[in-house]
Amino acid sequence: MDNPVPLEHSRFSALYITDPELRAGLDAIVYNSLRPVAATLGALYAVFAVSH
Predict the structure, then answer these.
(1) CB of 17 closer than 8 Å to CB of 4
(2) What is the structure's pLDDT at 38?
(3) Distance (Å, rounded) from C-alpha 47 to C-alpha 21?
(4) Which of 7, 20, 23, 33 is 20 to 30 A away from residue 50, measured at CA?
(5) What is Dmax (Cα atoms) for the chain?
(6) Where are the domains positioned within the chain?
Protein backbone atom coordinates (compact mmCIF):
# COMPACT_ATOMS: atom_id res chain seq x y z
CA MET A 1 0.00 0.00 0.00
CA ASP A 2 2.97 2.33 -0.34
CA ASN A 3 2.14 3.23 -3.92
CA PRO A 4 2.91 6.88 -4.59
CA VAL A 5 0.01 8.97 -5.86
CA PRO A 6 0.98 11.71 -8.33
CA LEU A 7 -0.24 15.19 -7.60
CA GLU A 8 -1.59 15.81 -11.09
CA HIS A 9 -3.47 19.03 -10.41
CA SER A 10 -0.60 20.73 -8.66
CA ARG A 11 2.13 23.02 -9.86
CA PHE A 12 4.48 20.52 -8.22
CA SER A 13 3.58 17.74 -10.64
CA ALA A 14 6.93 16.02 -10.16
CA LEU A 15 6.21 15.41 -6.46
CA TYR A 16 4.65 12.18 -5.24
CA ILE A 17 2.89 11.46 -1.99
CA THR A 18 2.79 8.01 -0.45
CA ASP A 19 -0.31 6.37 0.97
CA PRO A 20 0.76 6.88 4.62
CA GLU A 21 1.43 10.57 3.97
CA LEU A 22 -1.95 10.94 2.27
CA ARG A 23 -3.68 9.14 5.13
CA ALA A 24 -1.92 11.32 7.71
CA GLY A 25 -2.94 14.47 5.84
CA LEU A 26 -6.56 13.39 5.57
CA ASP A 27 -6.60 12.36 9.24
CA ALA A 28 -5.35 15.83 10.18
CA ILE A 29 -8.09 17.47 8.11
CA VAL A 30 -10.78 15.33 9.75
CA TYR A 31 -9.31 15.91 13.22
CA ASN A 32 -9.27 19.68 12.72
CA SER A 33 -12.85 19.67 11.39
CA LEU A 34 -14.33 17.37 14.00
CA ARG A 35 -14.63 19.86 16.89
CA PRO A 36 -16.48 22.60 14.93
CA VAL A 37 -18.84 20.05 13.38
CA ALA A 38 -19.56 18.43 16.75
CA ALA A 39 -20.15 21.83 18.38
CA THR A 40 -22.51 22.89 15.60
CA LEU A 41 -24.48 19.66 15.77
CA GLY A 42 -24.63 19.93 19.57
CA ALA A 43 -25.96 23.48 19.38
CA LEU A 44 -28.50 22.48 16.75
CA TYR A 45 -29.64 19.57 18.92
CA ALA A 46 -29.99 21.90 21.92
CA VAL A 47 -32.07 24.37 19.91
CA PHE A 48 -34.39 21.64 18.67
CA ALA A 49 -34.64 20.06 22.14
CA VAL A 50 -35.59 23.37 23.76
CA SER A 51 -38.05 24.35 21.04
CA HIS A 52 -39.79 20.98 21.09
Answers:
(1) yes
(2) 96
(3) 40
(4) 33
(5) 56
(6) 5-51
